[in-house]
Amino acid sequence: MYASISTQNLIASIALDPGIKTQLKFQNAMSYSDLNSIILQKDAADSAAEVHGIAVAMLCLNKAAEASDWINEAFSEGSGLPQDDKLEMIHLFEQTKELMDSDEFVFDLFLPDEDEMLPLRCAALMQWCQGFLFGMGRVQTSSEWPGDVDEVLKDIIEFTKLDAEIDEEHAEEAENDLIEIQEYLRAAVMLIRSELNPARENSTVY
Description:
Blueprint: H1 10-13, H2 32-41, H3 48-61, H4 67-74, H5 83-101, H6 118-137, H7 149-159, H8 171-196, H9 198-202
C-alpha cells in the first residue's frame, strides 16, 4: 500500500519534539464515527476525514479562515444542517485551528480510531488527502507554490493512490506504513502552513 515519499527528511526538517503526544487532540469533540454519519447522511463528502482535509487546507491558506466558510464549502451553503450538528462541526474546526496555531507539534488528522479495521483507516487517510488537495486546488492549480510546497503536494497526490486492500500477511507492514504516512502528513501540513505564511512564522523567531 505504501507510496514513495520524495521528501523523507521532512519530519526531521521541522523542529519537532518527539516527546509531545497528541492523545488529547480534539478534546470533547464528537467521535469520528458520529461526525462521519452526519457527513454521509448529508451526502456532503465521502467521509469526515475528507471534510477535515478541506478544513486543514483552508487554514493553511488562510489562518483566519472561518468555520462558516468551511461548512458552506462542505455542505453546499449549509444544506439544512441541524444546529447541534453545525455546532459540532464548528467545534472541530476551531480545535483544528487551535492545534495548528500551537507552538508545539500537537496537530493531527481527524481519522477513525486506531481500533478500527485497517482498510477503513487506510481509505479514510486517502480521503483526507483528497479533501486537502481539493482545498488547496481551489486557490491554485499550477506549480507556482513557494518553497517545498509543490513537492509535498505531489507526495500527497501519491497517497491518494494507496491500496486499501490489505491481506493478513502484510497487515503489520501496512500498519507501520500507515503510521509513517500519517506522521509525514502531520509534518507536511505544518511545513505548508509555514511556507504560505512566512511573515507570521518569521515573527515568532527571536
